[in-house]
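wait is this the right file?? whatever heres the structure
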């Protein structure tokens, strides 16, 4: 049977405006937050526009606070401001748990803005398959601009130096890590315009057992004697990453 579009359809030549054949681009034009890396199928997302924070908040040491504010936003009217209080082994963290998916090739994307270079961003995916726990992580230190991933040693392994960071509100950077929990290897790490090859690095398997789920952590670790503010926005979770 015939396939495709008629000559007068979406592929027809137009004199004024062009047609859109990419549904992902159409979604972006209509306001979707999925604009940075359109690979993978979106499981869920959070643009922090709701009146409540839909994450579990936890702290260590002096801790800090997590709240919805308009201090710095990427899209819409709110972001999640993570305020860290300086102290040894201190952090403020938000955590989101999702159910098991039909694929083990998962992506985790976060955008952030910072007014200074205090604190370190740590993103983690903790994959609980009901038998074994697996941990992957991405770390960014704005003071040194070093990008690292968490390996099976276990330790933070530097993979790149990003370069100069603008420490101003409303200026957002986007990071994304993709992990294959079938092979227990990283697939790729993205940071703004860069993509880093991390396919040879394995994730940690500490051996714990928990109910089947996937935990996604977004943590700000703050060194002693300084405080930090990180605006987190447009978090996207994906599956079936190519």
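ok assuming it is, sequence goes like this
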């Amino acid at each position: 049977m015939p396939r495709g579009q008629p000559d007068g359809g979406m592929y027809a030549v137009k004199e004024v405006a062009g047609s859109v054949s990419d549904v992902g681009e159409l979604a972006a034009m209509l306001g979707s937050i999925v604009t940075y890396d359109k690979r993978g199928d979106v499981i869920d997302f959070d643009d922090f526009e709701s009146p409540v924070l839909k994450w579990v908040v936890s702290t260590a040491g002096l801790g800090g606070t997590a709240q919805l504010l308009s201090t710095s936003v990427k899209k819409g009217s709110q972001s999640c401001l993570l305020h860290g209080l300086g102290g040894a082994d201190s952090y403020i963290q938000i955590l989101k748990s999702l159910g098991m998916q039909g694929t083990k090739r998962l992506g985790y994307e976060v955008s952030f803005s910072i007014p200074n270079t205090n604190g370190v961003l740590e993103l983690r995916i903790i994959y609980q398959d009901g038998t074994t726990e697996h941990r992957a992580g991405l770390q960014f230190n704005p003071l040194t601009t070093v990008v690292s991933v968490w390996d099976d040693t276990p330790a933070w392994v530097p993979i790149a130096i990003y370069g100069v960071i603008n420490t101003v509100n409303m200026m957002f950077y986007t990071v994304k890590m993709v992990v294959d929990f079938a092979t227990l290897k990283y697939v790729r790490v993205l940071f703004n315009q860069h993509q880093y090859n991390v396919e040879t690095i394995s994730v940690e398997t500490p051996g714990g057992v928990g109910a089947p789920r996937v935990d996604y952590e977004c943590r700000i670790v703050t060194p002693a004697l300084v405080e930090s503010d990180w605006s987190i926005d447009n978090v996207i979770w994906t599956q079936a990453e190519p």
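The mean pLDDT is 92. so i think its the right one actually
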